Amino acid sequence: MQVDVDEMRSGANRSYNAASFAMEGADQLSRVSPTSGIFGDFPAAASFHGALAAAHSNHVDRLRKHENRLGVLGDKGHKTASVFVEMEERNAEALRSVL
User: Per-residue pLDDT tens for 54-75?
Assistant: First the structure.
């Protein structure tokens, strides 16, 4: 079995970058929200505003969840790469001790 730990670490770093972008998007999106009355002062406008505000909130929440999951994925990628490196070092040492 051959494992490219550099590629694993590269993938983990890409996950961290994606998490950072998700965080930035959530932060920027959460700084603004549709103001009440922007679409007019009648029932359909209020209903549309409510739907838009709910969608806005949902997008912010989903971006935050993506940020968290991508960060965890990056952590796991680095941890797995380290485990393979440590295992390879132990196996190499075991072979040297036999020879």
Answer: 999 999 999 999 999 999 999 9
